[in-house]
């Protein structure tokens, strides 16, 4: 019994020590049924599991759920427009749109029927349209709200003289971002013109919050990249395993079905 108590005390001490090294203060902790998390610009939290999606508002109430996942695997919930989130099911070529209560708005869009039979990635656009990654032609296409093609980047594998294998596609602010499998982050403008390439430091995921690109590394750190000057700032995370999301001044950490929310504490060290 004494041995167990010592282990418990040591575990609590170790966790406290890890948190102390990070500029985040934990403000809540709760058990959830989810493996992934997305937070929109209004602070609504989307908890994603293999069987459904749950949406909670910024203060934890107003819970809505959907289990309309019949089209197979998907990359993520796109919350570019918080009032019209959607899910792209690439293998089935379907796109399902929801309202802000996670009620399905219209019948699923069939991308195959519209001529986009190789759209492996899709993301929303502020300009009332969408971006599609065409794997066959190795290009990003801009389509309008009715999925009419507007323009494209051209073959990016030829442009960059190396294979393009996207892991994620996202538009935020004035830029479109594509994270490649070799962890190069390609930045394009709103017309699909290439602007710059950032080489990330190993296995990572990314998001964009306001004017900052935020990169999460498996080593337990995050990196702010200011899009004004593209200056990098490294910040230790309170952990290294699980899913992270940063929005505003809050960090969300989902690990082992526990969602911890932290407040980012600005000080002289960061």
Explain this structure to me?
With 270 residues, this protein is mainly beta. It is 9% helix and 46% strand. The protein has two helices and 24 strands. The strands form six sheets. It has a four-stranded antiparallel beta sheet with strand order 1-24-23-22, with no helix packed on it. A four-stranded antiparallel beta sheet has the order 2-3-4-5, with no helix packed on it. It has a four-stranded antiparallel beta sheet with strand order 6-7-8-9, with no helix packed on it. The termini are far apart. Residues 1-20 have low confidence and may be disordered.
Summarize the structure.
This protein is mainly beta.
Percentage of residues in strands? over 45%
Major β-sheet profile = 4 strands, antiparallel
**Radius of gyration, in angstroms, nearest whole number:** 20 Å
- Count every beta strand, where a strand is a DSSP E run of 2 or more residues: 24
Question: CA-to-CA gap between the ends?
Answer: 42 Å
Globally, the shape reads globular
Percent range for helical residues? under 10%
Average residue pLDDT:
88
Alpha-beta content class? mainly beta
Unreliably modeled segments? 1-20
Order of SSEs, N→C?
A: HEEEEEEEEEEEEEHEEEEEEEEEEE
- Quaternary status: single chain
How many DSSP H or I helices?
Answer: 2
For the biggest β-sheet, the strand order reads 1-24-23-22
Q: Strands, helices and their partners?
A:
Blueprint: H1 2-21, E1 24-31, E2 36-39, E3 45-48, E4 53-56, E5 64-66, E6 77-78, E7 86-89, E8 94-97, E9 109-110, E10 119-125, E11 129-134, E12 139-144, E13 149-152, H2 156-159, E14 166-172, E15 175-180, E16 184-188, E17 194-199, E18 204-209, E19 212-217, E20 221-226, E21 231-236, E22 243-247, E23 250-255, E24 258-264
